[in-house]
């Protein structure tokens, strides 16, 4: 794991395929940004994915932005995700917008126990469409799926919104770890396919991949 903060100078995001040799550059970072309202669990998701742990208790809001590097094995290739944890608070919004432009992927997160965080997803998508690249990979995550008793956003509501917006969706728990690996793996797989796709190759379908993996792991049962 490697971590960095806002002053990171890593901003070279070009093609990851050498078009002459058709080789994949495993050192190329794929910038992936976690966005969503304050308190939805962005930092907790990243800590769970990176360190396999959940720190319960007091909630300290992220200030600014920081990143963690993770290498994901996809079909015998290494995909280097540089995962940026942003501050959900409104006052940091202009800082995080500046980072959208170079992002290859955005994980858009709401909290299933917090209706406003779900209602704000459309506003987040408007911002993403305004500031990010047109072909950025976007995934919707409904976090805190372990908190069944406090749930106020139904799974079907998340599915419906994601379908309307044409983006993949799953529910996660930073506490139990459910679907966290799958979310990042699916993003890495999509990015790897985009980078290595040859004209006659079958297109990778991220929605179908997620559905097949969810069914394998029985993900949708409440934790
Ligand atoms: N039960 C449960 N609690 C969670 C989960 N994810 C996060 N939390 C709790 O929710 C609170 C907020 O989590 P954070 O990860 O700090 O939220 P954030 O989105 O990074 O917040 P900002 O930094 O303000 O944008 C903390 O108290 C976490 O312990 C989860 O999946 N399940």
Automatic annotation (TrEMBL):
Its cofactor is Mg(2+). Pfam families: Ras. CDD domains: Rab26. It catalyses: GTP + H2O = GDP + phosphate + H(+). One of its GO terms (molecular function) is G protein activity. Keywords: GTP-binding, Hydrolase, Lipoprotein, Magnesium, Metal-binding, Nucleotide-binding, Prenylation, Protein transport, Transport. SUPFAM superfamilies: P-loop containing nucleoside triphosphate hydrolases. It is an enzyme of class 3 (hydrolase). Its EC number is 3.6.5.2. InterPro entries: P-loop_NTPase, Small_GTP-bd, Small_GTPase. Signal peptide: none annotated. GO terms for biological process: protein transport. PANTHER family: PTHR47978. Belongs to the small GTPase superfamily. Rab family. This is small monomeric GTPase. The lineage of its organism: Eukaryota, Metazoa, Chordata, Craniata, Vertebrata. The gene is LOC101160735.
